[in-house]
């Protein structure tokens, strides 16, 4: 079988992708999606930080 690029799922964001062919509306949607993803990642980071802080309080820092 030939090595072919897999079709990208609709709406998938690729960092560094050429933005020339995107409409203003598409770019706005992309910005909104990235902001939501940043919020989600920050929440995950904060939850992990709280867990690490709790463990450090119990077991002390290494």
Strand content: under 5%
The 3D shape can be described as elongated
Q: Give the N-to-C terminal Cα separation.
A: 51 Å
Major β-sheet annotation: none
Give the overall average pLDDT.
Answer: 89
Helical coverage, percent range: 55-70%
Work out the helix count: 1
Oligomer: single chain
Rg of Cα set: 19 Å
Series of secondary-structure elements, N-terminal to C-terminal: H
Q: Which stretches of 5+ consecutive residues score pLDDT under 50? A: none
Total strands:
0
What structural class should be given to the helix and strand makeup? Answer: mainly alpha
Explain what the structure shows.
The protein has 62 residues and is an all-alpha fold. The chain has one helix and no strands.
Features:
mainly alpha; 62 residues; 1 helix
List strands and helices in order, with pairings.
Layout: H1 24-59
Structure in a nutshell:
This protein has one helix at residues 24-59.
